[in-house]
Amino acid sequence: MRTFEDYQKQLAKMKPNIYIGGEKVGRTDERFQGGARIIKETYDRAQDPRYEDLCTATSHLTGEKINRFTHVHRSIDDLLKKQEMTRVLCHLCGGCIQRCMGIDAINALDVVTYEIDRATGSDYHARFEKYLRYFQENDLVASCAQTDVKGDRLRRPHEQVDPDMYLRIVENRSDGIVVRGAKNCITNTAYADEIIAIPTRFMTDKDSDYAVAFAVPSDWDGVKILARPANPHRRKHLNAPIAEIGDVESFIIFDDAFVPNDRVFLNGKLDPRQTPFAGFLALLFANYHRHSYTGCKPATSEVIASAAALAAEYNGIEREPHVKEKISHIIGLAELCYAAGQMSAYRAECSPSGTYIPDEILTNAARKLAGEEIYNEYKIMADLAGGLSASLPFEDEFFAKETAELANKYIKRNPKISSENIHRCFRGIENLVSSDITSVMQVAGLHGGGSPQMETITMMSRYDLEPLKGVAKYLFGIEKEPPRYKRANVTPRQMLQKFAKFTPKRVNPDL
Amino acid sequence: MRTFEDYQKQLAKMKPNIYIGGEKVGRTDERFQGGARIIKETYDRAQDPRYEDLCTATSHLTGEKINRFTHVHRSIDDLLKKQEMTRVLCHLCGGCIQRCMGIDAINALDVVTYEIDRATGSDYHARFEKYLRYFQENDLVASCAQTDVKGDRLRRPHEQVDPDMYLRIVENRSDGIVVRGAKNCITNTAYADEIIAIPTRFMTDKDSDYAVAFAVPSDWDGVKILARPANPHRRKHLNAPIAEIGDVESFIIFDDAFVPNDRVFLNGKLDPRQTPFAGFLALLFANYHRHSYTGCKPATSEVIASAAALAAEYNGIEREPHVKEKISHIIGLAELCYAAGQMSAYRAECSPSGTYIPDEILTNAARKLAGEEIYNEYKIMADLAGGLSASLPFEDEFFAKETAELANKYIKRNPKISSENIHRCFRGIENLVSSDITSVMQVAGLHGGGSPQMETITMMSRYDLEPLKGVAKYLFGIEKEPPRYKRANVTPRQMLQKFAKFTPKRVNPDL
Amino acid sequence: MRTFEDYQKQLAKMKPNIYIGGEKVGRTDERFQGGARIIKETYDRAQDPRYEDLCTATSHLTGEKINRFTHVHRSIDDLLKKQEMTRVLCHLCGGCIQRCMGIDAINALDVVTYEIDRATGSDYHARFEKYLRYFQENDLVASCAQTDVKGDRLRRPHEQVDPDMYLRIVENRSDGIVVRGAKNCITNTAYADEIIAIPTRFMTDKDSDYAVAFAVPSDWDGVKILARPANPHRRKHLNAPIAEIGDVESFIIFDDAFVPNDRVFLNGKLDPRQTPFAGFLALLFANYHRHSYTGCKPATSEVIASAAALAAEYNGIEREPHVKEKISHIIGLAELCYAAGQMSAYRAECSPSGTYIPDEILTNAARKLAGEEIYNEYKIMADLAGGLSASLPFEDEFFAKETAELANKYIKRNPKISSENIHRCFRGIENLVSSDITSVMQVAGLHGGGSPQMETITMMSRYDLEPLKGVAKYLFGIEKEPPRYKRANVTPRQMLQKFAKFTPKRVNPDL
Amino acid sequence: MRTFEDYQKQLAKMKPNIYIGGEKVGRTDERFQGGARIIKETYDRAQDPRYEDLCTATSHLTGEKINRFTHVHRSIDDLLKKQEMTRVLCHLCGGCIQRCMGIDAINALDVVTYEIDRATGSDYHARFEKYLRYFQENDLVASCAQTDVKGDRLRRPHEQVDPDMYLRIVENRSDGIVVRGAKNCITNTAYADEIIAIPTRFMTDKDSDYAVAFAVPSDWDGVKILARPANPHRRKHLNAPIAEIGDVESFIIFDDAFVPNDRVFLNGKLDPRQTPFAGFLALLFANYHRHSYTGCKPATSEVIASAAALAAEYNGIEREPHVKEKISHIIGLAELCYAAGQMSAYRAECSPSGTYIPDEILTNAARKLAGEEIYNEYKIMADLAGGLSASLPFEDEFFAKETAELANKYIKRNPKISSENIHRCFRGIENLVSSDITSVMQVAGLHGGGSPQMETITMMSRYDLEPLKGVAKYLFGIEKEPPRYKRANVTPRQMLQKFAKFTPKRVNPDL
Hints:
Four copies of one chain form a homotetramer. Helices cover 47% and strands 15% of the residues of chain A. Chain A is an alpha+beta fold.
């Protein structure tokens, strides 16, 4: 396993292909350090005895101890540990841990490449396992590039006026493929080792050129990254973890980039029988990613509830019934969302590749509820913290000669709490509520991993309404037989069967 | 195990002590048959091979096969099966299965009588086990009488102007106790074999007389039951399960009733050291009951979603996006609530009596969300079914000579569905939406087992906010140490420790 | 003006053509008396000096004093008075006053018949004014039959498999028309003098046969009424207005009924140029009706808030913050909805016929909000009243020898309030929350006058989004000119211009 | 009337007493120019013939034409025009117009100083009118400093450990007063001519020292301003109004500042009979300010709806039903809120000073609804605009040589819209959604002018629940008399009567 220092050294060696404000910059640019600071938790905690059990795993390929973020889930326990690790690390950085994209992408690829081989006789799974071994051994950070720019939203890829609105293979060569297109709204690319590109939707027969998945180093030739950093306001005097983090969103352009064969994991242009697997891969990544959200969303809610509860204590109102009601609302949501993620692990199915797939109805139902509530949670935090969360004077005023004494005098509330701690509390809330990164957290809380609308669609495409209607038909006397009494959703098992010819194994047949 | 016929014969023998409309009536009164019809499912399905595994269990006292509704949970699997049984049987009667009160009361008493003995050296647990053996062998239906009439809501029991506003022991005799008071909003008493009375709240030292729990046959001397039946509109022509059910709510008066010692399970008047166990018993019953709600509330939501989906199909609008969004909303809630109940079983703790207690935070969070949404679910059903759900002509009009042909002609919608089935669909929805029993379902959906306000209070009294605030304190630099990374709620283990001197065993130490 | 007694005598003379439970019954049937009791308020209050100013008006046709429910709005003040009358009378009967359908229908017909004449050279307005004079002189109650049974919801009238799914003209005769079809979900028909039938939607050229409006006495040949009464539980001992009211919903079948020419107000089959006026009439009635809802919905909300506040007082919890928050929520909605109705009157336009049309955006926005909140209001009432609202023992138990003393003892709460008044309070709430009529109030609160979905569609078809987008275009630098600063909705003026060739007069040009 | 240039020249002359980042800066600091840009609209539009009627008024003191922002409302029309001006100018700067604080403060002082004189025989009204004349003639911008820092929220001013937690008079001198304390969360002070300080709450007899109101120039001796600017990201290439604006929130410290008598308008330390007027002034300012919110909140909602609708068009999804539903939700709220403000003007009462006071129930109900919905509106905007609203690459990337072509190619959506306009649209939305000023808009939308909780309290303290309960008492048979049929709120008339001995005149006695 790498250390954070190794990771940083590696980043420093990469070719500059990132653009900010009209300039091409390297990976050591100051504006990326907040993001790297978050990744640091994933390296440091894997070496920290208190977190080691959560943050490391044993590779099923090599038997070596690896960072859990490079692991493929081979059991229910793996899914539970991944979820818990996500929650715990998000607590430590006040929100998104950013490295889940990699683990979610490799899990989806592990399942799908196996299926492609069984359906078409190819050897993509071996290719992928070779790549995975490299990924694990080098303890890499990956960015998963899924969301295409999409052009006209109501047209399919091949119907667009400009055919490049979805990432596509423009040429098949003997040694690899040439790809063109752009992915946007991608987190962490500016400080990731690798970019793993996967499709964003189902592809029809006419969209075969768009059925493509591959991995490249993030400074690869032909890859251009337009980066948008967002940071909380930095501190001079009162250092705190919440002020050190950051986010960088990327608009990644593949400008006729060449990808060698051993890094290509789906190619509908070469073999159209692979085309339907584009949608399967898209949904499977989404499922793993939404399962990760059952770890990070509760943590985000808890960070918000925690800050709100602390502000309420410092404001002296923590015993007011409306305060309790509001905080309990957030906590209840966090608990339900986390429990849904745990149950989706208990109900997981084992794919033929041996990798476990969590229950899709639950991952979607949980992500949907969390997404619908994120703005309300910010509202509650601002409500309980008060107007100061957006109007707190800058940090210097609390330290400068002419103003320090007055500023510290007048920020005082609960007499038992020092001015410095009250200041720290509202400075921290200001970081959460009132800076560039706030918007990223809000919008990502709504859209990241798919917006509530997408989860509704996914949930309802998996959920079989006919047996549900059977309940009413029986009760209303339209059908005589009682409804069958198991929930009737389409399981990963059945979803897989659409694409290949075998059946994953039910882990807990009774759930 | 009894059959439904045995149960009915037994009811027929009971003394009349039920009052409706100014008259004293027996248990065979027509107005109670809808309720008994629901209880029928609990007897019939225990004998039905398709449901036997769910609906029966093995007594830990006798090793005999018993109806699961008389069973005490000795494992996680018992909790999971009880939850699933509840959901499945609720599907079969379109809502509340009504017999959960008994199982929830005996589980709470099993845990608490054991604790009382350990704290005070008494032998209540043996008493209770003797009663439980009788209860299991005779396969009894119990009504749990918890909610006192409460008088002035802001005063404690001993502060009331009339001291009888909470059920109390007015006399301790050598052979038993004399009790006075009333319990209201109690389901199923009119066709239950037994009434199990337990406290409704915590009791202070001054409230010792009110710390009382016991069981009596429901036709016991000194017990008067004011019953309020509520039924859907009955049918003449188109029979259907949904039209056969019913509910009876009771206002139970204990008019100086004598209870012999072997049926007394808590007596703070005799031994004030028992007084604090009143609150523990109240909360523990609530916890088991809210766990039962994680079975019945998803089922109720699914009945509603099922009816709404069927109406949408028959109205020809099932593919409209707003219809899918509304139905998916209900389904998502049902899934989250059910998953929370399952996880609360996985996180159960084993009490010293050997009986399992589900996680309280989750049972409360799930019940709270379900309670908050029940009116919204009715709104969605009425929305998708349309105005006819409250304005459908009576059944006869569809069969009487002068009107049948016209009524059946004009109710036609989706041309593929027969008039009769369309009629059945809207008649069924009318039963759900537009009759006396509707209000009971709505109000019970909100208040039954405790209103959302109560769940907020319970949840927040279990949830330890200080470690949660630790997250913000760490992030804001107020504390240097990272927060401890387990959820920090007060477990049943810790709750028990308040009352007795030992520790339940964690079943899954990692959850 | 008639008295209530005159009205009743008139009803008694009508031919029986109403079917309940397979029998044909007359207008004096006991089951209709609850509805008639509501209509009584509209007669009695017109004679009551305290309400006379609100409940009477001066006919613009005859200069005579008439009941306001037969009046056509000739000024802003008329609209304001109608709204206030509606609110006040709804307070007196605990909900829907039921006679608004007539006034809303005659206002819409007054405007539209005038327009038809101007567009086609016909003389329908004179016909209508003759009818209106008769209507006013005889102080008639009208039921407006708008909602067709509609068959397959996704097909237009002429596309249905059975062409009778929308009311249509099957034959034009020299002396009148023959109509066939059915209208459902119609309030008050069983005790109305007249049925006024109008279209339910826009009609295309191919739907000309369905562009029809007319009035007939409600016992007319060929008219069959399938009636569904819904009443609160009646009282024996504690009489109260809330227990006396009732509702009857009708499914009205026009079984080849003949309508003489002087009662026909729209006939697309005779003159296809009239066809587009079907949609105009449908929307205009909806607009007047939604304006009436800005009177009755605040009243309904206030009845609910009033009952909830009284229960809170009697329960002793009225000073609890959550109680205030919940009641203030309902009150705030009522106030906003009422104010919107008042402003829609202030912004009214005067149609060429001289009749005033309230602002459509506001009537729709207000009705939409009210409809979305109705279930939530019931939830709040049940929340604050508690479980007793659905489980109160029957009235007799509080008076019968064996139970009266105990029942009255145990219902006691706030010691300052007598048992009788506490009983009255919960008996009243039980009438509101737990009886057949509850469902009608809930479903009508959602769907009556058009569901929130319909108001969204209407609102957005009137609201011109392009000028709104102009705000963003200006702010974003896409357009240099500032947006025009008046709200840019399509006014009745513009709506009228689609159908005829002139312009209504703006009453308040600045609003 | 001044021009914007005059205003700026005046600012440039002021003494530096503003602190940012540890430095003392002057009013011409670059970071204040976004705020001044907003104030510019209030000067420019007063000179613009298209807006002149709205933005100017005639002084009741001098008969001169003045900027409406310095005017005291002498009629219903004045209130309506102020509301409309607010809405229109907010459209032009994409949110808060910031100058309303001044007009709201002078209106409240005009009413209250008159009342103080009548109650105590003082001459404060003449003092105030002299100040008002100066204010109007110099066309001044005022910041209203109301919100005290408040220390421990559960203690009254005199109970605080540090007595300076609320602004207080520390010394009465013959020529004036010396004040000490701090006000926070104050908008616009950094570019305002004047600070008008008023109390934040009711004051008891023991809080007389805290009953103080006065005006001083914002660079007055002893006044220190800790300023926090928040701006959208500025542009280099695509200029647009939305990118030019800004906000500055201030923490204002009165460090033993001397205020001469002719600028003191309330002094409870000098004459304790004035103390109760502190609360009256606080509430009256809040009422005027909430009435201003009925202009700015609809405008803010419309800006959001406008941007969301434009993004939906450019994304090609504007005809999707869920898009229409979401946009109509915002529009409906805006319309209801605006109509409530208009009706509160129509229902205004004329205070004895001749100044009009809008209806308090409506201003509070409208502000409450708007405050509760602001986060939901941002959610809808982010929902319809998509993830790009928080991840759009920086502006330079669309113009720099290496990236411009690619960036403009891949941002393309609706093929009919140029890349530049699509870029402008998302750049504008990014300004709204993703920058420092976003948080200020969100938090101000919730808390500005009082949070929903405050409006609930104010509304319920004005609304007389007893007559409302009369509705239920009548319906339930507890009282025989029908309820009185006017809404029973405490009017400004009655509120005034608490403080002084006369009655304002009802303007529209029937509303």
